[in-house]
Amino acid sequence: MNNNQPKNVGLLVFVAALGYFVDIYDLIIFSIVRIESFQDIGVPEELMRSKGEFVLNMQMGGLLIGGVVWGIIGDKFGRLRVLFGSILLYSLANIYNGFVQDVTSYGVIRFVAGIGLAGELGAGITLVSESMDRRKRGYGTMIVAGVGVLGAILAYYVSEWFNWRTAYFVGGGMGLFLLLLRVGTFESSLFKQVSNHEVAKGSLGMLFSNRERFLRYVYCLCIGLPIWFVVGVLVTQAPEIGKALGAETVLSAGKGVMFTYLGISIGDFFAGLLAQWLKSRKKVVFICQMLIILSSLWYLNSTGITSEKFMWLAFFMGLGVGYWATFVTISAEQFGTNLRATVATTAPNFVRGALIPSTILYGYLVSLWGIIVAATVMILLLSAIAIFALTRLKESFDKDLNYIEE
């Protein structure tokens, strides 16, 4: 082995972690500055919710499309192409976002930013997983995600210190700066080996042409389902849930998101270390599912909940869903080198997109049973699906990734 390899791998992990940090910052900045930015560009109060859903759905659409595009590029042309291309696209989009004057332009730019944001995590996790010793790669992916989600906390404070346009400029500027740091990174040796083989690379059709492979992919997606329901509904709808629980003060969704992401960051580190200790990623995901269920039920049964208690519960729920990096790592490890980037990049974005049908079902249940019962049923249902899917996947810890899908 090259004596410089450990140093180079360390640089790779560092740069991938900073990339995901910027990615998370840019991913949630709209949710944080929505009200201020809409007021500034003249959106009427009564249209705040509907226009906000339009812009957020545009960003989500970009994420779904980008997940497919960058995944295919990563397997066909290399992981580094994705890391350079995605960050350049979303950085420029966020800088331009600081100049928008109307909702239509806002939505279009968030769509473009979403396409760029879709490539960062999957490509980073794939590159780190393929470049590190298989017994230690869990540490690398743990650092990438643990450091990365702290970008949400920076986004909250930047929005508090500066106006919304500056918040977008900061995100874009960080991305362009990071682009310069990536000049010293290197391509995956496993990808280089596969690039010389006459084998299908980045083919979505391969995921659907074989029943066993298709189910493997679906199971990978299912283990991540509870994550975004906790963040996107249980925490984001804290004002409405708090009201249903009889809270004396309005619960702050913004602070809830900050504390949840703090929990996710610590949870990602904890999940990575625990996986190395147990030598099992499946056991860690199961433990996280139990923590999600316990903390969510505690939250949804906290009659008269206070703001302080909500912050702590948001943090505990964040710890539970802090298996995000482990989920993406499992997805990457389940597939051969010629499909690995496609799976690792589409999986997190499809899971984010799965929040749409989840919220539709949740809305229907709210109309039947009210917000508390509906939220309880949904979190139990999604965790049950995740646990079942987990039992159908093979343990991937310490798995040799030097193989291809035929």
From TrEMBL:
InterPro entries membership: MFS, MFS_dom, MFS_trans_sf
TM segment ranges: 12-34, 54-73, 80-99, 105-127, 139-158, 164-183, 214-238, 258-277, 284-300, 312-330, 368-390
Main location: membrane
Major facilitator superfamily (MFS) profile domain mapped to chain residues: 12-394
UniProt keyword annotations, A-Z: Membrane, Transmembrane, Transmembrane helix
Location of this chain's protein in the cell: Membrane
Molecular function (Gene Ontology), one example: carboxylic acid transmembrane transporter activity
GO cellular component annotations of the record: plasma membrane
Membrane listed as a keyword: yes
A family per Pfam: MFS_1
Membrane topology: Multi-pass membrane protein
PANTHER family: CARBOXYLIC ACID TRANSPORTER PROTEIN HOMOLOG
Protein known as: MFS transporter
Species of provenance: Sphingobacterium olei
UniProt lineage: Bacteria, Pseudomonadati, Bacteroidota, Sphingobacteriia, Sphingobacteriales
